[in-house]
Amino acid sequence: MEQKIFFPASDGIELEGALFPGNDKAAILAHPHPLYGGNMDNLVICEIAAACRARGLTTLRFNFRGAGQSRGAYDQGEGEQKDLMAAADYVRTRGARTIDLIGYSFGAWVLAHANTEKLPPGRMLMISMPAAMMNFDGLRPCSRLKLAITGSEDEIAPPALVEKLLPRINPAAELRVISGADHFFSSGMAELKTAVSDFMND
What we know:
This protein is α/β, with parallel strands linked by helices. It has helices at 43-54, 78-93, 106-113, 159-169, 189-201; strands at residues 3-8, 14-20, 25-30, 58-62, 98-104, 124-127, 145-151, 174-178. Helix 1 runs parallel beside helix 5 (189-201).
């Protein structure tokens, strides 16, 4: 069962999270844009977390600053990158030896811009990178990125635009397109969960 927790960000604010204590492999899930109602209870985030828990992983869903009961305010993605690193520090202190990062929509944007080089070993999965909505300038190469997933009908993360972004992060990263799925996976949720479960089983 998930446990409600609070943990500190690097600049002293307190962040809200939901932790499932599994094995020493952790998955951290970053949610959609808080200014458009995104938070850790987003359906896609919850379904992905369930797929990870089924594999025995420790999972941490958390609210970026200003979302839910997390303190602070939206910070144009800068403070949110600090929040991601604070979440990683938290699961590391609880014994995580590897940390996989999973971002959905805005959460994927945060992952793409965060400096994750000093984190423990792990991989990165980006779902519905909002390439048609947000600025992806200034990306740094990151070998952690192994897989990107989007829907064939996603107007916010069109497959063609996502495909153009991936070589700027990791040319070896795979793109998987779920047929018929839109940005919210109102169809294609089962395929998304299977893709995430398979990824976590590798």
